[in-house]
Automatic annotation (TrEMBL):
Keywords associated with the record: 2Fe-2S, Cell membrane, Disulfide bond, Electron transport, Iron, Iron-sulfur, Membrane, Metal-binding, Oxidoreductase, Respiratory chain, Transmembrane, Transmembrane helix, Transport
Mode of membrane association: Multi-pass membrane protein
Protein source organism: Ferrimicrobium acidiphilum DSM 19497
Pfam assignment, any one: QcrA_N
GO MF entries: 2 iron, 2 sulfur cluster binding; metal ion binding; monooxygenase activity; oxidoreductase activity, acting on paired donors, with incorporation or reduction of molecular oxygen
Stretches that traverse the bilayer: 23-43, 55-74, 112-133
Keyword Metal-binding belongs to the record: yes
The protein's name in its UniProt record: Cytochrome bc1 complex Rieske iron-sulfur subunit
PROSITE patterns cross-referenced by the UniProt entry: RIESKE
Length: 298
């Protein structure tokens, strides 16, 4: 390529530059508007086809803008200039001044385009954070720490029948709830598996001397692995089995996990028997129930 052709190429680029700057700017603006449209559509209930169209325009706008910028606004070169006599002719000096002023304009426009690009990417990220956060569901609040068990709660079956100390033989098992919350749609966290493992007071761990009157032991039914209901009791081995991934919990030692992926024991509910022979809880659980939320350790 001759020197003349090279300069002609550079001249063409100069002529094309204003047009391409407009193309780049419009692409970014389209992207911003489409992203806002996407956010609004999602906010008012969502419509997959419309959201898809907006997403296409938002990402397409950024893509077209960046590609056009790289292809038409970044100097492509190579530009070769013969070195002549070192002293500049007056017309060369004028040309240089003109070129410098033109460059200042380009720098200003480049800043503008950079801001538009930042705006397009920023708005896109911000608005798409919405669906992501909303998809995480409602904030759990204290529900993972607090159940409806409290001091004096009567143990009742799912149909509301109060559980008496005489109800189970040794080896018997049933699912119980705190009175007043049986049948509630949100009572899954309150489910307790009640086992009668002996006919005398049982101590599962130091500090739990009064928790197992007449051999009654109560444990949260929500598996500490992934939250499945621990519903199977093997009387022979005195173990509770979670059917989901076969975790085994030893009833006599505070439901310590002896097999399977559960990371910690099932929390134990302290019980007492009142003067009428009704089973009640001494308090709520002394630790959060359910999956090892997360990595609390035993
Ligand atoms: S949920 Fe119980 S072992 Fe996985």
């Amino acid at each position: 390529m001759s020197e003349t052709q090279l300069f002609e190429g550079a001249g063409d680029e100069e002529m094309r530059r204003p047009l391409m700057e407009k193309v780049v700017a419009i692409s970014f603006i389209v992207s911003v508007l489409a992203t806002i449209g996407l956010g609004v559509t999602y906010w008012v209930g969502g419509q997959p086809q419309v959201e898809g169209g907006f997403l296409f325009l938002a990402l397409g706008g950024i893509g077209v803008g960046i590609v056009s910028w790289g292809k038409y606004l970044v100097p492509q070169g190579p530009y070769v200039q013969e070195r002549h006599e070192m002293k500049s002719a007056p017309e060369d000096i004028d040309a240089m001044h003109a070129s410098l002023s033109r460059g200042l304009g380009q720098v200003g426009r480049r800043k503008f385009l950079l801001r538009l690009l930042g705006g397009a990417v920023g708005v896109f990220g911000l608005i798409n954070l919405f669906p992501f956060l909303r998809s995480l569901g409602p904030v759990p609040g204290k529900s993972l720490f607090v159940t409806n068990w409290k001091h004096g709660s009567e143990l009742v079956t799912s149909d509301g029948r109060v559980v008496l100390a005489s109800d189970l033989e040794v080896g018997g098992v049933m699912t119980v709830f705190p009175k007043g919350f049986e049948g509630e749609p949100t009572n899954a966290i309150d489910q307790v598996i009640l086992v009668r493992a002996a006919d005398y007071n049982l101590v599962t761990r130091p500090g739990r001397e009064t928790w197992g009157p007449q051999g009654y032991l109560a444990y949260s039914k929500v598996c500490t692995h992934a939250g499945c209901p621990v519903g199977l009791y093997q009387e022979l081995t005195q173990q509770l089995l979670c059917p989901c991934h076969q975790s085994l919990f030893d009833v006599l030692t505070g439901a310590t996990n002896v097999f399977g992926p559960a990371p910690r024991p099932l929390p134990q509910l302290p019980l007492y028997i009142d003067s009428s022979g009704v089973l009640r809880s001494q308090s709520g659980f002394n630790e959060p129930i359910g999956p090892g939320f997360w990595e609390r350790g035993a």
